[in-house]
Amino acid sequence: MKPPYYLEILAENGDVQQRQRIATLPIRIGRGYDNDFILDDAHTAAAHAVIEDDGAGGLLLRDLGSHNGVIHRGQRQLQVALHGDSVVRLGHTRLRVRSSDHPVAPELSDTTMHDWEGLRPAVAGLAMIGASAAFSNWLSDAEAFDPIAYLMIIAYAVGAGLIWASIWAVANRLFGQTARFGRHLFIIGCGLLAMEVWELGSSMAAYALSLEVLTRYGRHMFIVIVCAMIYFHLCTIKPQHPRRFALVAVVLAIIGSTLILLSNLQISGRLADEPYMSVLYPPALRLSPNHATATFFQEAASLQQGVDTERGKSAKGGADDDSEGDGDE
Q1: At residue 183, what are phi and psi to the nearest 5 degrees?
Q2: Which carries the bigger pLDDT value, residue 82 or residue 279?
Q3: Ranges assigned E (strand) in the chain
Q4: Hey, how many other C-beta atoms are within 10 angstroms of the C-beta on 305?
Q5: CA torsion sign, 33 to 34 to 36 to 41?
Q6: pLDDT digit string (tens) for 112-142?
């Protein structure tokens, strides 16, 4: 390690909080004003440690008999051989020493601005939020068209989207330096639009192809979409950690789906959201072949036979219990 040397105070996440250039050895470290590197830490001694040449071209940090000592890799050490990535703790201060010839990491791409942020994604997000709200209301509306009612629904949806995007924008400003409000609004619009597409497409596919599972467990897909939205929100704030945020999204999806299953089981005794397909479409959309009436009655007779068998067993068990009770008397 060649001079000059740079002493760095690190945060818990590894970010450099303070850096000082020192040209020669030895380097005395502590709270005292006669040190070369002064620590503003009440848990360090006035003369806490010294960095000196180890005689082989390297650096050696030596404890000067301090009360709290020098901690390296979780263990207290009397002396530590320093390399460019060695981190020691003096009191509550995390310290690293690097020389002028220490290599630096490659330059990162600029993540402060993206192509798709600003006014365009904000307008697109608002349009998708309004369109999804109007379309959802149109599907469920059984009354005469009322433009005021549609405007109110769109206004409520847009207002909720703006509040949601504002919360994420504030978090983005705190942890990512820029708000990126437009991008967060666009993520919300995409998520709501995906929910509408899934709700309509899954119900139509379930009816056309007799895939009742799409409607019986359809709410789980909404959980997946919400978790995907959270993933993209987090990646917008910190694009350096996509794998970590993907794991968070997967865990949230598992927890949400588990809560839905438990809720269905508690309310209806079934894991499914509904016992049968509740939405029917025109017969022209039906692609799955129809079942013959005879097959239906045959299955119903088999079901009735099973129920009668269980009922007979229950009645026989009740009679046996009564006879045992009479014998005891």
Answers
A1: -70, -40
A2: 82
A3: 5-10, 16-22, 27-30, 37-38, 49-53, 59-63, 70-72, 75-77, 79-82, 87-90, 93-99
A4: 10
A5: negative
A6: 556 667 788 889 999 999 998 888 888 777 7
d(Cα 303, Cα 296) in Å, to the nearest integer?
Answer: 11
Sheet holding 79-82, edge to edge: 37-38, 27-30, 49-53, 59-63, 79-82
**Closest to 150 measured CA to CA, from 124, 128, 125, 131:** 131
Rg of the Cα atoms in the chain? 34
Sign of CA dihedral 91, 94, 100, 102: positive
Burial class (CB in 10 A: 0-12, 13-18, 19+), 256: middle
Which residue, among 95, 97, 25, 21, has the nearest Cα to 54 in the 3D structure? 25
d(CA 134, CA 41): 60
Q: Note whether 58 and 82 are within 8 A (CB).
A: yes
Contacts 24+ apart (CB under 8 A), 94-97: 94/9, 94/10, 94/11, 94/12, 95/7, 95/8, 95/9, 95/10, 95/29, 96/7, 96/8, 96/10, 97/1, 97/5, 97/6, 97/7, 97/8, 97/51, 97/59, 97/61
8 Å CB contact between 70 and 76: yes
The 3-state DSSP class for residue 203 equals helix
Question: Nearest CA to 252 among 231, 277, 278, 276?
Answer: 231
Do 159 and 220 contact (CB within 8 A), yes or no?
no
Packing angle of the helix pair 119-140, 147-176 (nearest 10 deg): 140
> Residues 38, 95: contact at Cβ < 8 Å?
no
Q: What is the pLDDT of residue 111?
A: 57
Query: Do residues 68 and 91 make contact, with C-beta atoms less than 8 angstroms apart?
Result: yes
pLDDT at 252 over 80: yes
What pLDDT score was predicted for residue 109?
A: 62
pLDDT tens figures, 104-116: 888 766 555 566 6
Structural contact between residues 177 and 237, judged by C-beta atoms closer than 8 angstroms: no
- Statement: residue 11 has pLDDT above 80: yes
